[in-house]
């Protein structure tokens, strides 16, 4: 019985690490210079905050949100990538 309990606890710990690792890996990056693009950097910061709030909501609701919260996080990640591309495009345009 003790070995079964140990294996269950180990599997649970591994699952929690996997879930946590996925959440961290998907979190949008802060990679736009605030000095060069303050508005885009602010939008990126807000998208990261929104992503974190969705994650908090998932945890509070024990992840049972019919996949909509995960879809929202994926869209926020896409927003973040587009903001980075916008900053790069602005960098190529002469003033």
Please provide a written account of the structure.
This protein has 95 residues and is mainly α. The protein contains 3 helices and no strands. Helix 2 (38-60) runs antiparallel to helix 3 (68-92). The radius of gyration is 18 Å and the shape is elongated. It starts with a helix and ends with a helix. Mean pLDDT is 80; it is low at 21-25.
Instruction: Look at the structure and give the mean pLDDT.
Output: 80
* Largest sheet properties: none
Please tell me how large the radius of gyration is. 18 Å
Q: Enumerate the spans where pLDDT stays under 50 for 5 or more consecutive residues.
A: 21-25
Strand content: under 5%
Instruction: Quickly count the helices.
Output: 3
In a nutshell, what does this entry contain?
With 95 residues, the chain is mainly alpha-helical.
Sequence-ordered SSE layout with sheet pairings:
Layout: H1 2-26, H2 38-60, H3 68-92
Keywords:
95 residues; mainly alpha; 3 helices; 77% helix; elongated
